């Protein structure tokens, strides 16, 4: 009877596991250990909403592009050039700076130091708002930069219009990326999906009202492009306030957010450079394809759209892995961090196989299956495909390097390095209080001096904060002033009246009807002379 009860308990045990809904097959539960099943379940549970959020976020510019197509080729080209300029100068910068929160917030949240999560968020807000000023300095000079690169003057003029109207949306874009990092690294994913759905609905309505109903043309499209970023930022902020998702991690604005900017920037600067280089590669590929022919540019755009769609799934899994590893390291659980790494790498490899099979079914397999042996011959003959061939080789080398680094990583040392400074100081204080009072008086004095010296190195006094943060703000303002001066002083070519009327011609060309000829209308020349 006891054996029957035990077997019954073992049979019912999987139903109480969180992963039982995913792994309902008995043979899978028998051959796959419980820890792996649980980890796969938690990663996939976060990956699904993250992929949905990425795709919904990608739909915002897609809708704007559809409405731009109704305004003519010049407007569509100008919007595309403005989007590329914003991506490589502003979006990549803000995204890279916000990536530092992925590390800091996840580890701090994993260590259960909840109020310090709010301090990190405040620090990120201040730093990213300061970086808005240099980004504005670049954006307001979009037209001369595009003309310097040999772009069409009319396209550069329209791109400048889009960028100028987009300037108020730059802080909203930066703050939205911070909010996403703030929630995502606490394991909160669904609010981003809900607000992205609402933002897409509002974006469609705004484009319809401004472009189709009110007929504001390119100005309405530029406003809709800027308002889309403001929508998704405000909606997410309102949802956080409504559901009080910040109640446990937000203790109000604190002067502590002015400290440790150096530690934040040590993570933010490499992250920004990594993201900028990654995005710049694709923009450079589009520029090089445009130098070849329109057919190469169209092929480059089609392949880029396909690669971007596939990349959304990898981004979702990357976000889930980052949260799990960061929380485990912050909690001091080295084993869980290593397990998450192994499981995520395996899932990524399986996902790559599935995506490759799908592309093979779409007749894209020839890119890899028919790769010639001579790379020089390939580059000289396949034109646009050589860019993707070179990108494939570089990504393979980079992935191999990353995998070697991950498996050779000293995870114990990494776990110790992620202990927050306050916890280290607290442990030093405990050690200082527990030293023997008689035999270790000298050690106690040395430890006191060491703690005071380390604290003085990390924390800045009020005067130091005023000087350093003031100089940082002054530098950002000077960069903006320099960009504004260049914008006001640089001479730009005057656009002719014919060029200025291109938008109206492109818009009204579809509304014009064929003028009937004299023969088809049945009117003779004498009647015309009489009239």
Written account of the structure:
- Its main location: membrane.
- It is found in: Membrane.
- Keywords: Membrane, Transmembrane, Transmembrane helix.
- Belongs to the multi antimicrobial extrusion (MATE) (TC 2.A.66.1) family.
- InterPro entries: MATE_euk, MATE_fam.
- There is one protein chain.
- It is globular, with a radius of gyration of 29 Å.
- The longest helix is centred in the N-terminal third of the chain and has 38 residues, at 73-110.
- The chain starts with a helix and ends with a helix.
- The protein has a domain at 36-360 and 404-419.
- Mean pLDDT is 77; it is low at 1-14, 364-381, 421-444, 450-457 and 496-531.
- It contains 24 helices and no strands.
- By secondary structure, it is an all-alpha fold.
Strand content: under 5%
Q: What is the number of E strands?
A: 0
Largest sheet properties: none
Helix content: over 70%
The Cα radius of gyration reads 29 Å
Decide which structural class fits the backbone.
mainly alpha
Give the terminus-to-terminus CA distance: 112 Å
Which consecutive residue ranges, at least 5 long each, have pLDDT under 50?
1-14, 364-381, 421-444, 450-457, 496-531
Q: In sequence order, what are the helices and strands, one letter per element?
A: HHHHHHHHHHHHHHHHHHHHHHHH
Contiguous helical run count: 24
Query: Residue-averaged pLDDT, rounded?
Result: 77
Morphology? globular
């Amino acid at each position: 009877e006891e054996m029957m009860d035990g077997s019954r308990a073992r049979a019912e045990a999987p139903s109480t596991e969180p992963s039982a809904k995913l792994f309902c097959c008995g043979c899978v539960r028998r051959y796959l250990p419980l820890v792996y099943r649980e980890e796969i379940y938690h990663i996939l549970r976060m990956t699904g909403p993250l992929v949905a959020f990425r795709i919904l976020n990608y739909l915002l510019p897609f809708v704007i592009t559809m409405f731009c197509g109704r305004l003519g080729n010049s407007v569509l080209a100008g919007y595309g050039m403005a989007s590329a300029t914003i991506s490589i100068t502003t979006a990549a910068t803000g995204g890279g700076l916000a990536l530092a929160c992925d590390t800091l917030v996840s580890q701090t949240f994993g260590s259960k130091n909840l109020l310090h999560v709010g301090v990190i968020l405040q620090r990120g807000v201040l730093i990213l708002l300061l970086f808005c000023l240099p980004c504005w300095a670049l954006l307001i000079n979009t037209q001369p930069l595009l003309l310097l690169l040999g772009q069409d003057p009319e396209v550069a003029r329209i791109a400048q219009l889009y960028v100028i109207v987009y300037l108020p949306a730059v802080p909203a874009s930066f703050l939205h990326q911070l909010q996403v990092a703030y929630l995502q690294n606490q394991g909160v994913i669904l609010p981003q999906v809900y607000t992205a759905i609402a933002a897409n609905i509002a974006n469609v309505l705004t484009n319809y009202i401004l472009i189709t109903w009110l007929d504001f043309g390119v100005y309405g499209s530029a406003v809709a492009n800027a308002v889309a970023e403001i929508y998704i930022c405000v909606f997410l902020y309102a949802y956080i306030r409504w559901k009080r998702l910040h109640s446990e991690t937000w203790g109000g604005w604190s002067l502590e957010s002015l400290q440790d900017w150096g530690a934040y920037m040590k993570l933010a600067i490499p992250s920004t450079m990594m993201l900028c280089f990654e995005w710049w590669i694709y923009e450079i590929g589009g520029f090089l394809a445009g130098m070849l022919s329109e057919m190469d540019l169209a092929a480059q755009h089609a392949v880029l759209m396909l690669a971007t769609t596939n990349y959304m799934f990898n981004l979702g899994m990357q976000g889930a892995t980052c949260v799990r590893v960061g929380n485990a390291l912050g909690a001091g659980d080295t084993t869980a961090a290593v397990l998450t790494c192994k499981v995520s790498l395996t899932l990524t490899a399986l996902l790559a196989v599935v995506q490759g099979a799908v592309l093979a079914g779409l007749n894209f397999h020839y890119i890899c299956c028919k790769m010639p042996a001579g790379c020089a011959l390939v580059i000289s003959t396949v034109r646009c495909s050589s860019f993707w061939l070179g990108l494939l080789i570089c990504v393979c080398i980079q992935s191999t390097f990353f995998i070697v680094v991950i498996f050779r990583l000293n995870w114990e040392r990494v776990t110790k390095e992620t202990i927050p400074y306050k916890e280290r100081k607290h442990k030093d204080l405990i050690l200082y209080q527990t030293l023997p009072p008689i035999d270790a008086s000298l050690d106690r004095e040395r430890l006191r001096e060491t703690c005071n010296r380390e604290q003085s190195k990390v924390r800045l006094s009020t005067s130091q904060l005023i000087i350093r943060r003031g100089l940082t703000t002054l530098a950002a303002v000077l960069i903006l002033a320099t960009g504004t001066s260049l914008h006001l002083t640089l001479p730009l070519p005057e656009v002719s009246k014919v060029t200025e009327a291109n938008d109206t011609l492109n818009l009204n060309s579809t509304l014009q009807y064929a003028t009937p000829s004299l023969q088809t209308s049945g009117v003779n020349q004498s009647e015309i002379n009489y009239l």
